[in-house]
Amino acid sequence: MFMRKKGEPIIQSLCDTDFYKFTMGQFVLHRYPDVPVRYSFINRTSKVKIGDAIDADELREQLDHVRTLRFTNSELHYLRGTNEYSERMFKEDYLEFLRAYQLPEYDLRVKDGVLVLDFPDAWSKVKYWETIALPIIKELRSEAMMRNLSRAEQEEVFAKGHLRLMEKIRKLRTRPWIVVIDFGTRRRFSRKWHAHVVRVMAEELREQFRGTSNVWLAMKYGLLPMGTNAHSLAMVLACLDRSSDEAIIESQRRLLREWEEEYGLGLSIALPDTYGSDYFFRHIMTPEQMRAWKGSRQDSGDPIIYGEKRIRHYRELGIDPREKMLIPSDGLDIMSIFRIDDALNGKIKLSYGWGTNATDDLGFDSVSIVIKVAEANGVGAVKLSDNIAKATGKNEDIERFKEIFEYNNLFSEECKY
Amino acid sequence: MFMRKKGEPIIQSLCDTDFYKFTMGQFVLHRYPDVPVRYSFINRTSKVKIGDAIDADELREQLDHVRTLRFTNSELHYLRGTNEYSERMFKEDYLEFLRAYQLPEYDLRVKDGVLVLDFPDAWSKVKYWETIALPIIKELRSEAMMRNLSRAEQEEVFAKGHLRLMEKIRKLRTRPWIVVIDFGTRRRFSRKWHAHVVRVMAEELREQFRGTSNVWLAMKYGLLPMGTNAHSLAMVLACLDRSSDEAIIESQRRLLREWEEEYGLGLSIALPDTYGSDYFFRHIMTPEQMRAWKGSRQDSGDPIIYGEKRIRHYRELGIDPREKMLIPSDGLDIMSIFRIDDALNGKIKLSYGWGTNATDDLGFDSVSIVIKVAEANGVGAVKLSDNIAKATGKNEDIERFKEIFEYNNLFSEECKY
Fold first, then answer.
1. Which of A229, A286, B41, B200 has its CA 20 to 30 A from that of A354?
2. pTM for this entry
3. How do the domains of chain A map onto residue ranges?
4. What pLDDT shows up at residue A44?
């Protein structure tokens, strides 16, 4: 069965996390190691009180266990040997940092059934908690939901899950040009189910399965570890200097330049929606970068409208959009993948970052939980995104950032996951 | 997954067999140890050539492996400690026989895709092959059918099987007075799947699951080992003296007397259909036995007509049929169980011997394979049953036995399993 045995830790390796934690981790270590930041747990599904559903002591036990883990020499070898994006992309100083690394302390309370979980520390240290703590919380919740089922009923849950997975795979096979990537670590039902899903996708989808964001599973199955960066980079950089609107805007431009300095064009997938994609492509990314970078990831708003805008924009710049990559990754399921494929296939290169619907489709209500930068450098962090329902930050900050980034997006949709 | 690992033997214990092999085995050892008999494999599903489907060398390897097995001391303890039917039902001389026991040699050939498999030896020795060789042949065929499936597709087969099993269990739960027994050893899809099905039935059906015919699984899960006797007893006894019709008839009466001598009334479930149930209850079993014996097993013909006849007969004798047991065991599925229940519940005690449909319902065509006594004491063995399509023996013998036993049954139906 795909649940942990009693007493077994949920996270058993520091590599059981998303690859981009390392690409971002090195970037942060090299440039912003000491910025004080605070990451906070947020449950966007208000009807589910996570603090009631899971036992805080058990959560604490799991979080404490991960703090006892260290990167093994084999894991460091694996990272050192990673050359798919550029030769020796992880430098020796960073690998030495990882060798000595321990996850920092955290603050955990439950208040009126609400789980309050904060991770305050220097950015280079605290960065790794997000994609460790989320699957822990998620798996504890899965266990809580399974607790009232008999063993055979639990097996039934996974039997149905496997049939659903196979059905999705058969649908994907009807369009053999569609390529998916596993992005399901953070909201996976359980560690073992995630491993099962990735194994089955790799075996059954073959060339249609490009890789996984999970480093442990990439190692385990010999797959390509995938990922570039997340919103936290843009969010923290926008906290460093709030003295003027121009400084905030400039922080976003600097991010692109510095990312390219760190990795060349190996990881040049832009994530444009932190403060609105329209502004990003008009005023942050330069036409030269548009030309040079591989493409972008679409993580909020309408993926087809987004794709059509990118295609138009590339063409305006004399760039053939068919040479550029678009990675939709916002709550995808087979229907939305097919809808995007219908609209955009052949016009731009597509890879689908398939997450929660791949690794948490076991018949239970899903919860949209995230761990986000709440503040950095003493000021509140802000994210707008192309879906205003996903915005995070203090209201006054959100309003200020909307003005700075000429945000007039009306798209608003509750997060599925 | 519920398939054996490469190199793993299919049968791993001499107790992985039906309980009634032991109840009959002791009976035979005590009374007819040296009768020369020949058991033969018969595939009643002519469209499937078992000899083509499975590899004879692999079959040989599996059969040879079982010949290396011996009863362990723990298994002998278990049998010695079996007291559910009567105190110390297995005697020390029989347990000593088992301690020294090795399965005898066999004859195996494949001729034009037809598997020819014979077990000729003294009855007390050769008796055990049937329920060992059948699940071996069955599992090799299952493996042949699974071979063209990918691992994830094989997992899908078992996922669907588990859902089917749970659906059946939920249906059975709607009639909490229905009680089933696992009779699925001989045609189980695989050893591991059998173990899964029995575990789930025991956990989910609780009091509605009375026990299993498989001794290994009874031991493994702490269940009641169940079973009494099979047609082979009646068939071999009818071979001992063919000098007169009366001698043949008398052999059947003797069987009942001797069975009762061996076990008292602990195992007093009659199996009446070897030469037709109507004759059996009119001329073989005495009214005293009808009164004393616990009941009967219905293994061919129409179970409802059979049940109604028994009820009427019991009443004629002034016996309350609600004190008597009827065990339908002929190719049952949920629909037929419910049909029998609709007709007979409350009128007679019912336990359902549920076999192939419980342990081999994985979406593949089933095959009706048996290993039957072909000859004994130098003459051809005969079985008529209440379904003439199930009759075995030479034509002239069948005709003679039909006359002797005034067989005028018109029921004929191809075996599902």
1. A286
2. 0.92
3. 20-149+367-377, 151-359
4. 85
